[in-house]
Amino acid sequence: MFQNRLNAYRVMWVIVMYDLPTDTKLDRKHAARFRKDMLKDGFQMFQFSMYLRHCPSSENAEVHVKRVKRLLPPNGHVGIITITDKQFGMMEIFRGKEPEKTPAGAQQLEMF
């Protein structure tokens, strides 16, 4: 049973990609607040406007998707995608032409 709960098809990643306007002082304030609030919710920067969060289940991922939706600024484009740990692990990452390792998921401790 324990193995079923933590397998690579159940563990999820929430990926948030965004392009927010920064033309005015108010726009920059909204963009900064959105980023800071995502960091508070446990998201990590993957690229400039791409943040991701490791979640132990699809139910937990949905909680964080709903939080991001509540944080949306009034302007700009935001995309949210949820993928399995298995799919995330198949990603190929390069720095220039040199391959890098895919970021490891968070370690999880479960008490019975």
Task: Provide structural commentary.
The protein is 35% helix and 29% strand. The chain has a four-stranded antiparallel β-sheet. A hairpin with a 2-residue loop joins strand 2 and strand 3. It has 112 residues and is of the alpha+beta class. The relative contact order is 0.25. The chain contains four helices and six strands, in the order αβαββαβαββ. The protein has one domain: Alpha-Beta Plaits (2-Layer Sandwich).
Total number of β-strand segments?
6
What string gives the helices and strands in order? HEHEEHEHEE
Distance between the termini: 12 Å
Average pLDDT rating: 88
CATH class, named: Alpha Beta
Return the CATH architecture. Answer: 2-Layer Sandwich
Largest sheet: 4 strands, antiparallel
Rg:
16 Å
Low-confidence stretches: none
Tally of contiguous helical segments: 4
SS class = alpha+beta
Strand adjacency order, main sheet? 2-3-1-4
Strand content: 25-35%
Shape type: flat
Per the CATH scheme, the topology name is Alpha-Beta Plaits
- Total individual domains: 1
Q: What portion of residues is helical?
A: 25-40%
List the helices and strands and how they pair.
Elements: H1 2-5, E1 12-19, H2 25-40, E2 44-47, E3 50-55, H3 58-71, E4 77-84, H4 85-89, E5 93-95, E6 98-100
GO molecular function, one term: RNA endonuclease activity
InterPro entries: CRISPR_associated_Cas2, Virulence_VapD/CRISPR_Cas2
Protein name: CRISPR-associated endoribonuclease Cas2
What labels describe this entry?
Alpha-Beta Plaits, four-stranded antiparallel sheet, 29% strand, flat, alpha+beta, two-stranded antiparallel ribbon
